[in-house]
Design a protein that fits this description.
Aspartate Aminotransferase, domain 2; Arc Repressor Mutant, subunit A; 4-stranded antiparallel β-sheet; 15 helices; 487 residues; alpha/beta; 8-stranded mixed β-sheet; Aspartate Aminotransferase, domain 1; 3 domains; homodimer
């Protein structure tokens, strides 16, 4: 191609670029041709007027495009003689199709070992409430949106006066959380021991990051929640499984020296729903105190205890500051609120808040202020009370329906509350198969075996009731009945 | 102490417990006495009526306290003969003062190596806008709060219909970000390549986590931003420092094989403000393409280019999907909004979104919807235009004031925009000392040497102008003048 010939195909891309200003489209088209070598170094560009005419563009459009090219060093102007493709461009040779949608280069997908360890996690990202009887779904329809909206409007008004500098989270919110935890959960805490997160998952992940080195060992409940299992795997830590029996987490003498960290759900094991007995609580705290170990207490929905008042948290019994208490509002209130927190022993507050600032950043102030206002106005506790009553009824309904239609297939695992029930399957049934078939019928129950890490899995199903009314429950149970009868 | 004697000191705590219901205070007092062994196993508790009378509490208060004790297994009732301290409690022996504020056990503060690496980070947590001329502070007073409030109210209304399930962030927001980046930053992106974070810091940290293994090497600019340096240290990666010269990041032939990841600020090096030249951009992309390496482009405030239109992003020139583009709204809009994002190559979208869900969680939907609405209404781009004009003026003012009062001490490092200016110090001055003295006078300039990792540090000061009006600038410059003249 001769130096001064001006390629017409240059302008085809112009037509393709929608919703982009003309001068940028022209700029990109010219830039592409330069980088691709269609316009070689030293090539003279046409003057703006004739080019504008030939392209049916305003002259200013062309001028702006040239200014951009000049600004980015693609062209240079020589006084009196116009614009030329600059010599510096072709140094590295042509790199092809800059503007087109680029092909994925599957080849060099070099990721860290951490990333590789995580990939299997993907299938846990399920859209909320898409399936009936899905566990961990609150009664979304019951959420007091109007009251929430008022709290949000308030937050929008006051947030200009709020500059988060502590790195812990909104002071207003931490004060609300502290007084709530003291009264309802028997947690010993001051607002300056609270660190706000956007959910308890990353609160627990950060804790593991800061308390565990890769290869170190940690006590994990068997069975346990996906998120905790996933976080431990992400750290690359060595899981030591502790079986859950009728009294909960059973840390036997001979194992106690094998790890310095335990992740537990004392109020109600996830998913089995077993409560850690008082004896075991005291023994566990004694172990932590004597061995200088840490305990992470995941207290995800203990508000919903139907057979009596909520139990005191494990943290509330801890006299040695060994317990890191994790809570969340996603399950009690609404998943979209995305606020969780840690209650930290004094000595962990500074390292945890530094690490959070660097690795996860502060939580947006807006939802924090809204939630603080929502709690201060008393809407939170009244909503919890309403939901406890509602869920109690829904649980009883579910158990009646199961007793009525599925009793020959299912055996209830007793629990004093929560948002789901666990049923064991009779011999000869695969819970995986049941749940796959249920899903095909729009029922989102989970198979119990998935929550076990060892091969010693129980076969059962986890049925969420909190988010589903009578009509939905009946429809789902009928579907399950059909699955079992055809099994 | 005899079995049936009832200790009176038991009830002292009652008086101390403010803002806690009486029955809980009583419950805690009794529980404490039981755990501390003041009430030994088998001890009979007084009946509720006489106890209520002696404590001047209602009988129901006492009953509720007993119910809690019963529920948690501290006492048991024997039909007809009343309540007794249960035998199971003392198993692990007494654990002291459960309720009092507990002493910090500095002893066994076992943290992970990651945590140890992070501790030094603490001193970077500076409260926003507390000091004059602090870098990276936008013009907070100029933020259009009323328009933002309207967007927030809208978000509060519509959020009930939004259930984030993609794991990427609000679709509405991603659409807004994508079209903005395409037009203004020349970024090649689709909304499904965008992953929303609560700031760019953790976006970059996550990228490093997923692209680097501990001990692996990464190219980092010398000097560079604290947050990037800190994140690399947190990963435990091996920093290879690449000097910034007049053309920016200078990756020499002989070094190119030493790492497969580069973290760069091509639009404007932080803090020097140097722009990466076109030649170097093309060479850098070529390196990434040939070696299958990744480039993280941190594009933190390129909107504020005063001497011409914003430059196209490096990502926009990338034909091989090797660039991870990171942006944030904290600096352009307001730090409290806490929203940043990554634009990811196709092959990284799935692993990154999985990892984020597990390790950082979704960003609260509320600020995302508010920002999306704010952008859709055009408030974002008009605010950016206004600030560009304002900051341009403030920069010129700063440079005039320095020329007028400090020219004998300071030499400007040229830059085409941004929110701060860098000045080099004459020989014989320590920038650390200057900045300490400045801070004492309420001036928050930063010392340039802090941004260097090697011993080959330049002595200079980083002066933020964006957030400070003429009066503030004059006051601060006078303070600096006094410091220099007395040096």
């Amino acid at each position: 191609m001769s130096k001064n010939e001006f390629p017409s195909e240059l302008f085809l891309p112009l037509l393709q670029e929608a919703n982009v200003p003309r001068y940028i489209a022209l700029f990109r088209a010219l830039r592409q041709s330069i980088i691709e070598g269609k316009l070689i170094a030293g090539a003279k560009l046409p003057a703006s007027r004739p080019l504008a005419q030939s392209l049916k563009l305003s002259r200013n459009t062309v001028k702006s495009a040239f200014e951009l090219l000049l600004a980015e060093g693609y062209i240079e102007t020589r006084r009196g003689s116009g614009s030329f493709v600059s010599d510096s461009v072709c140094v590295a040779g042509p790199t092809a199709n800059v503007i087109q949608n680029r092909p994925v280069t599957k080849s060099s997908a070099k990721l860290s070992n951490l990333a590789e360890r995580l990939n299997w996690q993907s299938h846990h990202k399920v859209p909320y409430a898409k399936y009936l009887l899905e566990p961990a779904i609150p009664a979304l329809a019951e959420f007091p949106w109007i009251k929430w909206q008022r709290a949000v409007n308030y937050a929008g008004r006051v947030m200009k006066h709020e500059m988060e500098s502590s790195g812990l989270g909104s002071l207003q919110l931490r004060v609300q959380i502290a007084s709530y935890l003291q009264v309802v959960r028997g947690v010993n805490c001051h607002e300056n021991n609270i660190l706000v997160f956007s959910g308890s998952q990353q609160a627990i992940y950060l804790s593991l990051q800061l308390l565990l080195d890769p290869g170190e060992s940690v006590f994990v409940e068997e069975p346990c929640y996906f998120g905790i299992d996933g976080a431990v795997n992400a750290i690359g830590a060595n899981k030591i499984l502790i079986d859950i029996d009728q009294q909960g987490f059973n840390l036997k003498e001979e194992k106690q020296h094998q790890a310095n960290l335990a992740v537990v759900t004392p109020s109600r094991n996830y998913p089995l729903g077993t409560t850690l007995s008082l004896q075991r609580r005291i023994a566990l705290l004694q172990w932590a105190k004597d061995s200088g170990s840490w305990i992470i207490e995941d207290d995800y929905d203990s508000e919903f205890r139907f057979d009596g008042p909520p139990l005191t948290s494990l943290q509330g019994l801890d006299s040695a500051q060994r317990v890191i208490y994790a809570g969340t509002f996603s399950r009690i209130l609404h998943p979209s609120i995305r606020i969780g927190y840690l209650v930290l022993p004094d000595q962990l507050v500074q390292p945890f808040s530094c690490a959070k600032a660097l690795m996860q950043g502060n939580v947006s102030i807006l939802p924090q202020l809204a939630l603080a206002q929502f709690m201060a106005a008393g809407h939170f506790s009244s909503h919890v009370r309403r939901m406890r009553k509602l869920y109690h009824g829904r649980r009883n309904l579910l158990q009646e329906l199961v007793a009525q239609y599925l009793c020959e297939y299912l055996t209830l695992v007793p629990s004093d509350g929560g948002m789901h029930c666990v049923y064991l399957l009779g011999a000869g049934y695969s819970d995986k198969v049941i749940c796959q078939r249920a899903r095909a019928l729009g029922v989102g129950i989970k198979n119990l075996s998935d929550y076990y890490s060892s091969d010693n899995k129980s076969q059962g199903i986890v049925i969420g009731f909190a988010g589903f009314n009578e009509q939905q429950q009946r429809r789902a149970i009928r579907a399950l009945e059909s699955i079992f009868s055809e099994y």
